[in-house]
From TrEMBL:
SMART domains membership: AAA
Top-level taxonomic group: Archaea
Keyword annotations of the record: Hydrolase, Kinase, Phosphoprotein, Repeat, Transferase
GO molecular function annotations of the record: ATP binding; hydrolase activity; protein serine/threonine kinase activity
Residues covered by the KaiC domain: 1-239, 241-476
UniProt enzyme class: transferase
PROSITE patterns in the cross-refs: KAIC
Species of the source: Halodesulfurarchaeum formicicum
EC number, UniProt record: 2.7.11.1
Name assigned to this protein: non-specific serine/threonine protein kinase
KW Acetylation (keyword) present: no
Alphabetized InterPro entries for the sequence: AAA+_ATPase (IPR003593), Circadian_clock_KaiC-rel (IPR051347), KaiC (IPR030665), KaiC-like_dom (IPR014774), KaiC_dom (IPR010624), P-loop_NTPase (IPR027417)
Length: 484
């Protein structure tokens, strides 16, 4: 196996490319095909290999300038330009006795033979393969030329990467059946949809691949790939441990607190106090000498810290210690897979035992609003954290102010071990905040709805239950005495 130059791509390929095989990298224009190939060449150069770059659309000067901008250094590669020269345009070259395609095809063949025999490379990048197709009379000749080209390189145990641009209307997971696709030992497909980049391995002959699509980003140091997380359920044995939330009122509702390694949703409409509840739960973990992480999708770290400090939750003090980190997340910049990798790396680095994800709607934005992928990615992240014994708190906004029958916004309630449900109710013209526990998978809980308020220097204050009110969940609260 030889490395692709991108460690996470090697992971998708189950070790990397097979020596002496041909791989097709296909995708729409701008999806990153050329960069994948340049990583491949740079990895060879770093391993003191001879590599050849056969190009037909960009000049060598432009290739080197563009690759340098993303931190790729391939200047020591052997370059072969098979594109038309300036004389084609300037001199209006024409051939009277034979077809232009026959002359060009013969020239291409001779040039490629010469550079391969002269340099004896271990890796070859042909960018793009369509440059060969343009000079053939018909598809039959093109296929013969292509088969001959691939056999010529394979006989010399050369690993070949070729790129191909596909139409944008085939970008949504479509499979392009072409000659080069059928001749390839592996196919890497790149997708670009509304600014979101994805990568998938369609086939890897003889070895197999990680299926599905995965995150891909182009950064100032080249291409980064973010494989989907598949939870490893073998990591953890179930050992129930009830931890206090550090808040008497919340402990009362939850009859003792939350189990370590459980997943808790704090659900409710905008402005009701979901983030404040999340901050209270973080403080409880920190007070018990645990380590905690918070990821903010909807507000800045400074705003979260200022608001919590004013409510008597000393976030600023905790941030000065090594046991707590807050990160502001921009969902339009990070894919869900990249965010997942950040979280798992932070958890491992800090040995954290609680994670707050403040703003499920922001996580959804990172998935371009795809509800099915939202559930799958959130399932993978929360299950992986749970398997590591990490407690997870997720704030989730419901659109209805009152009378909401769905405990979570995107049908993710099956993931939750615990659901704290926050809502507004109107009684006699006055608006009240209510809080209740809808679910606690591993224990009993107070089944009544309680009034609560958010008080400066005190934080969340759980008040008396609504013993004389019914119909809160339906959004039609009435005093029991009114019906008697």
């Amino acid at each position: 196996m030889i490395h692709s130059g991108i460690p996470e791509l090697d992971e998708l390929l189950r070790g990397g490319y097979q020596r002496g095989r041909v791989y097709l990298v296909q995708g729409v224009s701008g999806s990153g095909k050329t960069l994948i190939g340049q990583h491949f060449l740079e990895a060879g150069l770093e391993n003191d290999e001879t590599v050849v770059y056969i190009h037909g659309e960009e000049s060598q000067r432009d290739i080197l300038a563009n690759s340098h901008q993303v931190g790729l250094e391939i200047g020591d590669a052997e370059f072969l330009d098979i594109g038309p020269g300036t004389d084609f345009f300037a001199d209006d070259v024409a051939y009277d006795l034979v077809e232009t395609s026959e002359i060009d095809a013969e020239r291409f063949t001779e040039d490629i033979h010469a550079v391969i025999k002269e340099t004896d490379p271990s890796r070859v990048l042909l960018d793009p393969i369509t440059q060969l197709q343009y000079v053939e009379r018909d598809e039959y000749q093109y296929r013969k030329r292509l088969q001959s080209f691939i056999r010529f390189l394979k006989d010399r145990d050369i690993t070949i990467l070729v790129t191909r641009t596909i139409r944008s209307d085939l970008n949504r997971g479509g499979t392009v059946q072409t000659d080069i696709a059928s001749l390839s030992d592996g196919i890497i497909s790149l997708h670009l949809d509304e600014g979101e980049r994805r990568i998938g391995i369609q086939k890897h002959r003889g070895i197999g691949q990680r299926d599905g699509t995965h995150g891909l980003e182009i950064r100032d140091h080249g291409v980064e790939v973010f494989p989907q997380v598949i939870p490893d359920h073998s990591e953890r044995t179930f050992e129930p441990q009830l931890n206090s939330t550090g808040h008497d009122g919340l402990d009362g509702l939850l009859e003792g607190g939350l189990e370590q390694g459980s997943i808790t949703f704090v659900s409710g409409p905008t402005g009701i106090g979901k983030s404040t509840i999340g901050a209270q739960l973080l403080e409880g973990a920190l007070r018990s000498e645990g380590n905690a992480l918070g990821y903010l999708f909807e507000e800045s770290v400074d705003q979260f810290r200022y608001r919590a400090d004013n409510l008597g939750i000393p976030v600023s003090e905790y941030l000065e210690q090594d046991e707590f980190r807050l990160k502001e997340i921009e969902p339009l910049v990070l894919s869900a897979e990249e965010f997942t990798r950040i979280v798992l790396q932070d958890v491992a680095e800090m040995d954290a035992n609680m994670v707050l994800i403040d703003g499920l709607s922001g996580f959804k934005i990172s998935l371009q609003g795809d509800k099915q992928r939202l559930v799958r990615r959130l399932h993978a992240l929360t299950r992986e954290l749970k398997n590591k014994g990490v407690s997870v708190v997720i704030t989730d906004e419901n659109q209805q102010l009152t009378g909401n029958h769905n405990p979570t916004s995107e049908n993710t309630s099956y993931l939750a071990d615990n659901i704290l449900f926050l809502s507004y109710i109107e009684l006699q013209g006055e608006l009240h905040r209510t809080i209740g526990v809808l679910k606690k998978r591993l224990g009993s809980f107070d089944r009544r709805f309680h009034r609560f308020s958010i008080v400066e220097d005190e934080g969340v204050v759980i008040e008396s239950p609504f013993d004389d009110v019914q119909g809160i969940l339906q959004g039609r609260p009435t005093h029991v005495t009114d019906n008697e």
